Amino acid sequence: MRNKTSIVLVVLLGLTLAACGGKKGVKDGAEDEGVSTTALGDGTGGMGSALGAGGDLATNNTVYFEYDSASVTDDSRLLIEAHAQDLLNNPGATVVLEGHADERGTREYNLALAERRALSVAEIMVAYGVARDRMQTISYGEERPESLEHNESAWALNRRVVILR
Amino acid sequence: MNLNAVKRVQLLTLFVGLLFFSLGARAALEIEITQGVEAGIPVAVVPFEWKGSGVPPHFVSDIIEADLKRSGRFDTIPRGDFLSNPHDHTEVNYKDWRLIKAEALVVGRVQRLGSDQYQVEFRVFDVFKSKQLTGFRYSVPGKSLRKLAHQISDIVYQTLTGERGAFDTRVAYVTVERSPARTRYLLRVADSDGYGAVTILESKEPILSPAWSPDGLRLAYVSFEQGRSMIFVQRLGDGKRELVASFPGLNGAPAWAPNGKMLAAVSSREGNAEIYTIDLQTKQSRRLTNHLSIDTEPAFSPDGRSIVFTSDRAGRPQIYRMRVDGSGVERLTFEGNYNARASYSPDGKRLTLVTNQGGGYRIGVFHIDSKGLFVITDTTLDESPSFAPNGAMILYATQQGNSGVLSAVSADGRVKQVLRFQKGDVREPAWSPYNRKL
Questions:
Q1: Is pLDDT above 60 for A13?
Q2: Distance from CA of A70 to the nearest CA of B (A)
Q3: Does B129 lie in the same domain as B187?
Q4: Which end of chain B has fewer CB atoms surrounding its CB within 10 Å, N or C?
């Protein structure tokens, strides 16, 4: 798994770089509400400085996931990379990665699934050079929903990892 | 005139009191039959005679009638149909009960003996055979009347069905009270009919997965009170508790071994969610699973030899079984794209689980030998099923309106009832084992 992940990461890193160089990493759909990847695409300098100019890493801090999945989308990868860069620029800083799941399915499975999401984000940060001990992962499972409604858009908002400084 | 008025006020007071009592008693929990009960045994429960002044502290016969009805095994005959209201064997006219097609009859009386002491007697009759089947008399303090009523229900149930009743048992569940100011999580224990709820833990942080010890004296549960999930074991008697798992990463899904000396639980301390056993005496833990997938929700078989668990090692969550040492892992479920949180029936032959076969998350019963999986609910966000200790019913959580509610379903899926608790979002029910014989 670890080997496999690294390979996937290398490939995806390539994809990410390609995405940065060319097209904007914008994706539509409710699940990406709250995550703006356009700032990154418009940035002319480094990833971190582009967002730094926007000054909103603190609000652009949520990675969303597909149903029963802990795979990070390319767009989210840009966001994680920005946070990784920020951590590299601020050697004293640490983050908490809070994993969450939607309400569907069982609570304990969701606790494990949400943790896997947080670990996915952590692994990507590590791939960008952030020391693992600067990141703490906590899974809340489905216990702390962003939206209390019971529909697709609520579920999309609730399947997330929040990167907290 | 004056006297008359006073009398009337008293009567009115009594009536209002009765009304309030009755509303109060009913408000906590409503039984809702959502599927037919025609196949139940027609039983008439005559309101027990009350010998004493004022109002009895509990209407024993109401409790018994509600228990029998909720079990799904009985068709309780409306009191308005009764042609007579006997209270003991000398008053029973079997013809009155054959006429309204009652097969069984329950009568009794409650008498105040002292300031807080009551004598309760009941008798059960077979209407067709025109004979008494059983009958007992008790003397109890007021606080024991509800428990006694459930014990009587158990006797009636066993007398009429031949199977052990599970009314004198308890349920544990979590209630969430959300307000703009704060969210409170309450771990509560109530009688099997939802009455007499007592909060045993209150927290600002999530509580989940309460699990009864086999002796019914302790609860293991997951609490986020220290900022992340940890497993505690709490004694119900004195409220004392112990932190049993606070490993790095998540700690969850506690399940008791049948001997009460060991828990199976989930920890991700070695990277991802794996199942361990924890010896409660030595606190030594032992890893059972070793897989890159999620392994969670362990449950022991009643003989203590096997553990079923949820794993997504084949891509989606399915139920697997292993020996208690972690060897001999085999996949049990293949139907549907989501099967999780399995637990055994008391006889070890069936599992109840959460299943999604395309129509939503529903409660299923899986027959281990035949591998048959039967979906027994028709709602879409059902979770946390557990068997009653007699295996006849399954308690689970579902969504109704915008709130979680507890619901009970007969193990064959024929009868369902929503147990409507008054306040908050209710979830994570767990049915207790049989109460300890004292």
A1: no
A2: 11
A3: no
A4: C
Total number of domains in chain B: 2
d(CA B73, CA B87): 24
Please tell me whether residues B297 and B399 are part of one structural domain: yes
Which chain A residue has the Cα nearest residue B208? A107
The residue whose two tokens read 């999986």 is B373
CA neighbor of B428 nearest in space, from B388, B379, B395, B393: B395
Among the ranges given (B185-199, B383-397, B412-426), the one the predictor scored with the smallest mean pLDDT: B412-426
ipTM confidence = 0.87
> Rounded to whole angstroms, how far apart are CA atoms B107 and B101?
16
Measure CA B319 to chain center: 24
Give B74-85 pLDDT, tens digit per residue: 989 999 999 999
Is pLDDT of A49 > 80?
no
Q: What angle do CA B144, B21, B32 make, to 5 degrees?
A: 90
What's at B9, amino acid-wise? Answer: V
Q: What is the CATH number of the domain that holds B119?
A: 3.40.50.10070
CB B408 within 8 A of CB B24: no
**Strand pairing report for B117-126 and B230-235:** unpaired
Q: Give domain status of residue B34, yes or no.
A: no
Q: Count residue pairs from A and B with Cβ separation < 8 A.
A: 94
Going by C-alpha positions, the residue among A128, A114, A132, A119 that lies closest to residue A10 is A128
Are B243 and B386 in the same domain? yes
* Preferred mutation among B229, B231, B356, B403 to probe A, highest tally of A CBs within 10 A: B229
The predicted-structure confidence for B424-437, as pLDDT tens digits, reads as follows: 789 999 999 997 54
Residue B200 contacts residue B183 (beta carbons within 8 Å): no
Q: B177 and B149: one domain? A: no
Nearest chain A residue to B271, by CA: A119
Say yes or no to pLDDT of A125 above 60: yes
In a domain, B305, yes or no: yes
Domain hosting B62: range is: 39-161
CA-CA-CA-CA torsion sign (B429, B434, B436, B438): positive
pTM of the model as a whole: 0.83
Same domain, B236 and B375: yes
Looking at this protein, which amino acid is placed at residue B6? V
Nearest to A112 among B227, B250, B381 (CB): B250
Q: Do both B304 and B237 map to the same domain?
A: yes
